[in-house]
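hey so i finaly got around to running the thing on Rhs element Vgr protein from Paracoccus aminovorans. pasting the sequence first so u can double check i didnt mess up the copy paste, my clipboard has been acting weird all day
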Amino acid sequence: HGPQTAMVVGEGEIDCDAFGRILVRFHWDLSGAHSMRCRVSQNWAGAGWGGMVIPRIGMEVVVEFLEGDPDKPLVTGNVFNGRNGVPYELPKHKTRSTFRTKTHDGKGTGRGFNELRFEDQAGAEEIFMHAQKDMSVEVLNNRAKRVGRDQAEEVGNDKSIQVMGDHDELVAGNMSIAVGNNPLSEMVRQKTRVLFDGVATAMKRMKIPDPFNFGKGNFQLFVEKNRSEIVNGASSEIVGIARSVAVGHTHQTTVGNAMSVIVRKRYDSDVGSVHNIRVGDQFTIKVGENSTLTMSKEGDIVLTGKRIRFKADKIDYN
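ok and heres what it spat out for the 3d tokens, dont ask me to read them lol
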């Protein structure tokens, strides 16, 4: 007499055998008995591959009988009813297509879900993915991603990236990296929050309260071999407390025009062997307001002070 609907029954939340067959109870069966195990039609069914969605207890399914034989029941679909409502309000979300699951906790109280959703409303098109816990993506060859406008990423805890070959990054505009809680990190945090809010508004999703968790505020960089840095404009560095540089072999600094070093209190220089200073035009040492030593390239040496004393075991005059 054509397809019939029945309710999925069994033990627990999901009840199937090794072949994915389920038990159903027909509405006309007033005795409360259930059927024999029914095969479930899937979108694909290959040898170890294909689709696999097992109807759960409490769902209403469509049952047909192969060749009209009541001993060959086949579940061919599912239908919503008054007890099992649709995932999204209709007809309000009639442009939305979704595949949403429900967390299985063995008690029937699971509230979590995994979902793949498509929104086709003009001007609000969206593909939405939700993983209730973990999400894994494995690509055996190449992967390419292109974002036409903005991209925002939030990591609630730690993040690690391992690149076995080369890693290149090209930033056409500005780039900011902030570590720890400081004015710069707050600026980046605010800019990122604005970006998140803009994406959330466009995608009709809730706002993210705090984009970053900066942890203890330390930053470490380790380079196995060589490192080069080229800045076409200006470069500045601000260190709040202390800065140290350890060079294992040679250290060279080349300045094309002017260079100044300002030390507010004490400046020490310790050279283990030879220290050479070469000045092209004039060399001046000034201490306070009364003592000055000036040497010029013409050979003039001027020593100025209130009192000049010489101490030595021997002084030679040529």
